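About this split. The held-out portion is used to measure sequence recovery: a designer receives only the structure tokens and must propose an amino acid at every position. Recovery is the fraction of positions where the proposal matches the reference. Here is one held-out target exactly as it appears in the evaluation file.
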């Protein structure tokens, strides 16, 4: 009996020693962080609800300066919120591989721009960069304005009442990215496929959140068993839709002589096709041209369209939600935005064009300040490809580095009175001397957000369309918000605002 006990004890001690005293573990344990336990290290610390996990990450960021460490079963992870430490990682072309947290998305987005790495990522980035050049954005602006006008039309039905802005805004951004990336209208009377696609995207998003917060369904195979293949069902809908859109477009180009990527004759496209073109399509055509030139294959085209549909809608919807909530809660700031809009448009009700949007300097500062306080992507992850030195500590290769944008943006030493919503922080003279990595809502360095100009344009388009017609009144207050751990910054409760028609319109 005693013999067994001693043997088991020896076995446990050996496991503990092997897991927690190897070269990597010794290096990582020098970095400050929560105390680890016998064998399991910090594993028990994270068995929490998504809201508790979010709160714990914030608490740890106030306890240890610049970075803290998590260690468990051979996995080393750092939470990093010091601007120098962040710069060392994201400005480098070495550490461009994403952390394994992103693997939940791999069945859907595969090797699209967000998840790919190495030369594949470099090639794709080169192909897609022109999709966000000024002339392309100018075309997108027309589509965004049409959608923004539709959004304000729909507000009529709920005028004066408290509404949860999250679903309405998500619908707006999903339609906008779909119409700009694929020139495909979702949910129109003729497009049953479009409606199913939209629902499947929402379901995949929900499932992602579900998996992120729970340990057992992390493995794709096990998760599918648990959910009786529900995820695969949604993936099939999404992939068949994007496949069909691409096929239709390819056929259209072939019918028109094989070289009509940017041809304005698109107006004659078959209206019964799910690829319903009125104007040229920059992003998809760009990819098909690259395919013709042998730079990307058929699967690659689809991976990118799937990636842009995902990255391009939830992020901007989140940014818009908090910005609307903040503007509703700050009457004097709202009045200043309206003054700027009145100066640009006077009594006119015409749609804004790209020049109008570029004149909205104060609105842009409000958006930037809102993205500081509520960064839609609150954290992002890399895996170190080689050993580096951070804050005087040697960090071994293979460590997951989670850049905590949320904590960085709320550092008192970088932003005085960090919880105050003050758009003037972004006046040129107030940004002088600020650390270049103090403000990174769109990340920075080689893997920064490719869609950031599009995002700002979209946010300006919707906010200006709304504020030209409505005054916003607060229901949800900043202090009511309780966040959860997720890919984008979500709250436990809906975000409510009241829209009341302005007298002049
Ligand atoms: C307010 C809105 C947005 C915010 C805050 C945002 C933020 C970010 C951040 C922080 C990253 C880096 C992620 C990481 O390294 O893991 C990123 C990457 C990316 N974003 Fe955005 N994004 C926004 C809108 C958009 C839009 C509208 C698009 C597409 C039209 C887009 C497409 C992408 C893509 C494809 C990447 C991956 C880039 C690469 O790795 O080369 N994003 N975004």
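Reference sequence for scoring:
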């Amino acid at each position: 009996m005693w013999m067994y006990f001693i043997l088991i004890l020896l076995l446990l001690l050996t496991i503990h020693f092997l897991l927690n005293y190897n070269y990597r573990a010794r290096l990582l344990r020098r970095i400050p962080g929560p105390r680890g336990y016998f064998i399991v290290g910090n594993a028990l610390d994270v068995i929490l609800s998504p809201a508790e996990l979010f709160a714990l990450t914030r608490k740890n960021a106030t306890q240890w300066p610049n970075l803290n460490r998590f260690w468990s079963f051979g996995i080393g992870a750092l939470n990093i919120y010091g601007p120098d430490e962040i710069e060392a990682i994201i400005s480098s072309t070495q550490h461009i591989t994403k952390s394994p947290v992103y693997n939940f998305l791999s069945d859907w987005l595969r090797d699209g721009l967000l998840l790919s790495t190495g030369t594949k990522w470099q090639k794709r980035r080169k192909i897609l960069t022109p999709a966000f050049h000024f002339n392309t954005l100018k075309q997108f602006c027309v589509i965004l304005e049409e959608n923004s006008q539709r959004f304000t039309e729909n507000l009529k039905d709920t005028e004066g009442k408290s509404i949860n802005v999250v679903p309405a805004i998500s619908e707006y951004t999903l339609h906008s990215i779909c119409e700009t990336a694929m020139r495909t209208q979702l949910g129109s009377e003729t497009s049953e496929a479009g409606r199913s696609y939209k629902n499947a995207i929402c379901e995949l998003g929900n499932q992602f959140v579900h998996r992120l917060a729970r340990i057992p369904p992390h493995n794709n195979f096990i998760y599918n068993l648990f959910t009786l293949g529900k995820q695969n069902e949604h993936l099939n809908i999404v992939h068949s839709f994007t496949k069909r859109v691409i096929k239709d477009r390819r056929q259209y180009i072939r019918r028109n002589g094989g070289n009509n990527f940017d041809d304005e004759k698109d107006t004659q496209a078959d209206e019964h096709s799910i690829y319903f073109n009125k104007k040229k399509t920059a992003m998809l055509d760009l990819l098909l041209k690259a395919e013709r030139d042998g730079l990307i294959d058929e699967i690659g085209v689809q991976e990118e369209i799937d990636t842009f549909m995902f990255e391009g809608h939830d992020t901007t919807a989140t940014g818009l939600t908090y910005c609307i909530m903040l503007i509703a809660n700050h009457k004097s700031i709202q009045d200043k935005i309206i003054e700027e809009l009145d100066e640009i448009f006077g009594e006119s009700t015409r749609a804004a064009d790209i020049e109008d949007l570029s004149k909205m300097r104060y609105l842009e500062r409000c958006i930037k300040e809102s993205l500081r306080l509520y960064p839609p992507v609150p954290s992002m992850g890399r895996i170190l490809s080689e050993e580096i030195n951070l804050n005087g500590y040697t960090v071994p290769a293979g460590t997951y580095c989670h850049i905590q944008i949320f904590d960085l943006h709320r550092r008192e030493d970088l932003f005085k009175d960090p919880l105050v919503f003050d758009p003037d922080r972004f006046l040129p003279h107030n940004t002088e001397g600020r650390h270049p990595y103090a403000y990174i809502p769109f990340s920075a360095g080689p893997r920064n957000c490719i869609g950031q100009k599009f995002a700002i344009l979209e946010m300006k388009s919707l906010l200006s369309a709304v504020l030209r017609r409505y005054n916003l009144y607060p229901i949800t207050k900043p202090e009511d918000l309780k966040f959860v751990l997720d890919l984008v910054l979500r709250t436990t409760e809906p975000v409510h605002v009241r829209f009341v028609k302005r007298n002049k319109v």
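Annotator remark: Residues 98, 113-114, 125, 177, 307-308, 311-312, 315-316, 319, 376-377, 380, 441-443, 447, 449-451, 454-455 surround protoporphyrin IX containing FE (CB under 6 Å).
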